Amino acid sequence: MISDKKHVQQLASLLLKKGITDIVISPGSRNAPMINTFTGIAEFHCLNIVDERSAAYIAFGLALSIQKPVVLVCSSGTATLNYVPAVAEAFYQNIPLIVLTADRPDYWIDQAESQCIRQENIYQNFTKKGISLPLGESEKELWFSARQVNECLNLATSGKPAPVHINIPFEEPLHKLVQEALPEVKDIEIAEIKAILTEQELSKLVDSFNRSSKILILAGQLNPPTELNNIMATLVDKTGAVVVCEHLSNLSYSSFCTGIDLLMTGIMDENIESFQPDLLISFGGQFVSKSLKQFLRKHKPAQHWHLSMSNDHFDTFQSLTKVINIEAADFFNALTETIHQHDHSYLELWKNKETKVNQLRDSFVENTEFCDLKVFDRIGKHIPENSVIHLGNSSPVRYALIHQSVKNALYFGNRGTAGIDGCLSTAVGYTSASQKLNTVILGDLSFFYDSNALWNKYIGTNLRIIVIHNGGGNIFGMIKGPTDSPAFTEHFFAENTYKAEVLAKAFGLDYFKAENEGELGQALEEFYSPDQKHVALLEVFTDAETNCKVFRELFKMIKA
Ligand SMILES: Cc1ncc(C[n+]2csc(CCOP(=O)(O)OP(=O)(O)O)c2C)c(N)n1
What pLDDT is recorded for position 499? Predict the structure, then answer.
């Protein structure tokens, strides 16, 4: 059985034609025609999440996992506004979400009607396109609506993917069901095109590349790139270009440089000009490292090329000279075929420094007291190879990037907007469709903020949650500024004495805790044991002041 509402029938038909079948529904009345239609068709895979903020982050995590668009369905009113944080995160990470909001007919808006707000274009800053479907079901209105839905669904995945919004007004009755097949609707396809460089442009780029002796390539946050890793490795071997990446770039090769924050601290004062690039090439999303940005803003390259499928003019380092509208893999492939061998002295300079810094880090971590820095080292050594790791904001992602990455692991983090409000939900959504072991590591505030992520039936047994309980927002003690304020403890650190244990028990998770190194080692053994067959939460208690002291000492030591 499906709803009798024809616009919804058409929409469902087009979603199926375009292979979009994963739907995250939040309950409501106005969205009944969508709920009845999607759940009435076996091909759709429907989840139900009550809290719309969490639902949208779960949909986002699911879309990351299956690498396909995911549909969100909610009622009208504030339900729709709760989607905004995840829609923004998806927008800045180029993930397609199809957001379907139910609405009342426009003649009831602002007329003291229940659960009614101005819903048209509410996500306009974070979507590629937003439409409101017509209410009437005449032939012309149905044709118009099908054309607009086609356009929205095509835009979500073409070029630079992004969320789209379809607002659908419904008149009562909302629950009328019919025993009918979905209507045949024209699927307007979008032709696949591949951007390539003209011969003239390629030869100009190759010429510039060959004339540069210090080439730095920055790979920002990337969803697991399949062929790019090997292409970049070949390029580095041939040219001695320096590839700088973070765990979230999901690239890995012995000649790439990672651990950027510490490495930058290591080069900040000493012989810094020799590290300054002539040519900088960047692609992918954001970098976490602030010191990398500071270094490049101060020591600007003569040329900066940014590779972007949507001609983004990202002038992050105030030195942008060229935007190249091409896939990174295609660009580096084309380049590698034609460029000369370069000498490897620039690469050796960076790699030698990285080796030294890493040695200093390892002996420092071994000798330091129990603190977050040490906890992240131990966690990294226990997470099994081939895992998926989700890093929370803000100090978890920073600590994790200081340490070596886990072998063959995939890394994710909500770095599009760096919110603390959906890190757990994103991980829950990702894990629900993942065959691998997934670990999410979050601070205590982020965990409590998003604990509704646990309020559903879809938590995979392959999920491990680690809460670093340092008594509040410890990041504010680590960065310059907040500790000077008299409002520090109450309004920046936001001291937190609640424990995750009670919530873990409420949601039926196995619970582990650690308050010192011995307990942590023991807990991690059990937490990652093959005998641990159920979803589990490990709460690690550390002292906020010790964490800040050790963190500062590490950077001071590297600098010295
Ligand atoms: C939605 C949202 N609100 C506020 C912030 C600002 N913020 C950044 S980090 C942070 C504290 C995080 O605390 P916790 O999760 O305990 O991690 P810790 O700082 O201890 O590592 C806050 C409030 C944010 N990033 N996102």
Answer: 98
